[in-house]
Amino acid sequence: MHIRVENLTHIYNQGTPLERTALHEVNLEIEAGERIGLVGPTGSGKSTLVQHLAGLLQPTTGRVLLAGTPIHSKGATARSLRLQVGLAFQYPEDQIFEQSVFREVAFGPRNLGLDETEVKARVHWALEMVGLDPARIGPRMPFTLSGGERRRVALASILAMRPRVLILDEPTAGQDPQGRRALWEKVGQWQQETGMTLIIVSHALEELARLVERVIALRAGRVVADGPTREVLSDARLLRDIGLDVPEPVALLQALRQAGKDVRTDRLLPAEAAAEIASAWGLRRAGA
Amino acid sequence: MKAIPIGMYVPGDSILHRLDPRVKMGVTLVLMTIPFAIHSPWSYLTLSAFIATLVLLAGVPPRTLWRTLRTVFGIAFLMFFLYLFTTPGEPLLAVGPIALTWQGVLAAGGQIYRLCLLVITASLLTFTTSPMQLTHGLEAMLSPLERVRLPVRELAMVLTIALRFVPTLQEEIDKLAKAQRARGADFTGGPLRRARNLVPIFVPIFVSAFRRADELATAMDARGFRSTPHRTRMRRLHLGYRDLLAMLIVLGLVLTLIGLG
User: Fold this and answer.
1) Is residue A183 scored above 80 in pLDDT?
2) Does residue B231 sit within a domain?
3) What ipTM was predicted for this assembly?
4) Which pick of A240, A244, A279, B69 has the fewest CB atoms within 10 Å?
5) How much of chain A exceeds pLDDT 70, in percent?
6) Residue A236 touches partner B, C-beta closer than 8 Å
7) How many of the other CB atoms lie within 10 Å of CB of B107?
């Protein structure tokens, strides 16, 4: 689904002493099926922007178009469009409220007005997508699950709505390294299987580099960079400028370059960097 | 998030902001009793002028004041009609058993006016006194009750903590409402439907509130919190010349009003 953001400005608490501009004249164009990473320091407007993409906020000025229709307009069309955008806030497990995992995941599909057979099919599908066994975990009480399992239930409850745009705000925050890796892999699979547009807010640049093809960087409510992942995430000056850590492989390659070695610095992943270094030294890596 | 919630603190540096909270609470009580003790139009005029001056001194934005007054519109409306039709006297207009009397019009108008004065006076206190100062003042004013073993200190602590978490909870409710709306929850419709639809917000709120309370208790315990020994304050209350002046002015006002009747 095509997304278009036009001159979007959002001011919180306008006209009070607490006034704060979170987004300033943001313009974006996102094609169906794109995989996008959204980066920027805390308070740069990432969360506000993704809430706008899901139609949860009223813009101060400007608008968001979903498949050509303004997402904030009243009426059934706009509502059904909004429901095609799935948004997982940070720590989505905090929103769990039902007595069983099944009912929790079924909440969204039921709100869509689907019949019970379809609801059941979707719950099963969604739980399988997040790597949980529907038969075993479906009847359980969410509060008896582990933190990692609850996170996956919450994500399943969004997937079960079959969104055409999926927005994840720091999906792996507070998870252990294994859980993080597993979750990142899953996210990639969901996108491949459904072809949905994927928008991920994250500080984990290396994981983003593996998953997304385009990165949008925000600072103080403005888009300061928007381009292919390799380009944006290897721009050390830009990253430092907006207060993000330069990926370690990039930092290493830059140090080598400054020391006079002829290496490319736009290698974001350790394996890529290793290959680059090996070829600069005229070595061939074992097994490569 | 909504703009400044109704009746809440408006940070500022006016003379009213700088008064001792105990003085402000005492004065507010006095000012809120006066409308029930005076009768003559001159008294009302004097009191209104006095309160209007306070509003100007406090520098409260008129819009904020208006929003506060709006919250009592419902009660005011009800009161107006009750007084209008139940006050006995010379009928101006009569439809069957229901009579509109001249006395009724006066009484209804007077009640509304009193209500407005009360609301403005009370909100002047909350506009110019931070919740922290309010509890501090309350604790100081209630401290004599410690003699009869009322746990004043603990109550003040509980109140401070509760106030501290109001904005946090508001923010959380806001976030949960959005999260559930993104899953197709609908918060419109009749009261019964709306109540049922609030379950997806209130269950998680309770869960997190209890978790927070638990964590806070553990954290306080870990730092050795006990309420019994007297704790010193970072900011101690002391009466200054401003406070004495304020009390004198209010005393003057009260005497004048007694004179006017």
Assistant:
1) yes
2) no
3) 0.86
4) A240
5) 98
6) no
7) 19
At A114 the pLDDT is: 93
Which residues in chain B are closer than 8 Å to A17, comparing Cβ atoms? 10-11
Number of domains in chain B: 2
In the predicted structure, residue A168 carries a pLDDT above the cut 90: yes
Band of residue A160 on the pLDDT scale cut at 50, 70, 90: very high
Residue B232 placed within a domain: no
What residues in chain B have per-residue pLDDT under 70? 1-7, 96-97, 227-231
Are residues B147 and B161 part of one domain?
A: no
Range of the domain at B211: 152-226
Chain-centroid distance, C-alpha A277: 31
Residues B66 and B178 in one domain: no
Q: Residue B219 domain-assigned?
A: yes
Any CB–CB contact under 8 A between B106 and chain A? no
| Nearest-angstrom CA–CA distance, B219 and B214 | 9
Has residue B147 been placed in a domain?
A: yes
Tell me which residue in B11, B181, B199 faces A97 most closely, judged by beta carbons. Answer: B199
Q: What is the CA radius of gyration of chain B?
A: 23
What are the beta bridge partners of residue A61?
A9
CB contact under 8 A, B179 and A85: no
